[in-house]
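Archive maintenance. Older records in this collection stored only the sequence; we are now back-filling the structure field for every entry so that each record is complete. The fields below show one back-filled record exactly as it appears after the update. Entries are processed alphabetically, and MaoC family dehydratase is next in the queue.

ARCHIVE ENTRY
Title: MaoC family dehydratase
Organism field: Thalassobaculum fulvum
Length field: 161
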Amino acid sequence: MTKIDEGFDPAAHLCARQRWFEDFAVGERYLLPSRTVTDADFAAFRTVSGDNHPIHYDAEYCRARGLPGLLAHGLQVVCFAAAGAGRFPHETSDSLVAFLEQSSKFLGPVVAGDTLYPALEIAELTPQRTTGVIVMTATIHNQRRELVMTGEHRYLVKKRP
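Back-filled structure field:
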């Protein structure tokens, strides 16, 4: 028979303490897990996106154009900078209202075998009456320390009730 532990509270089993808009500061960094891009990642994204351009799935097409391999789709690269891969969504479980906007600039190619190192950094805090907008700079470097993507995320977060 399983014993009930009255001292355990599932609601208190949190990955991070709850934060509200005023708890954040410009300059805070969120390092996201590094990941090596694989052929399986390419195949999965190709299936989800429906993109059928040969630059993403035809190695001979890429070689004929002097490319080092299949190029990752830009939207696939953006996915590596998803805040959901880190602790930010856990910290804003009760305060996050919306993911408002995302922008990105692609600065270099990403090919299978590259290891990507994504990070988010709070660049701006804009308070409103009951909420605020958190602007984060998104960056992704590869294993050669090259910056391959930069951009911004905007989140609407509640102020402390």
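Update note: The chain has four helices and six strands. The radius of gyration is 20 Å.
Entry marked complete.
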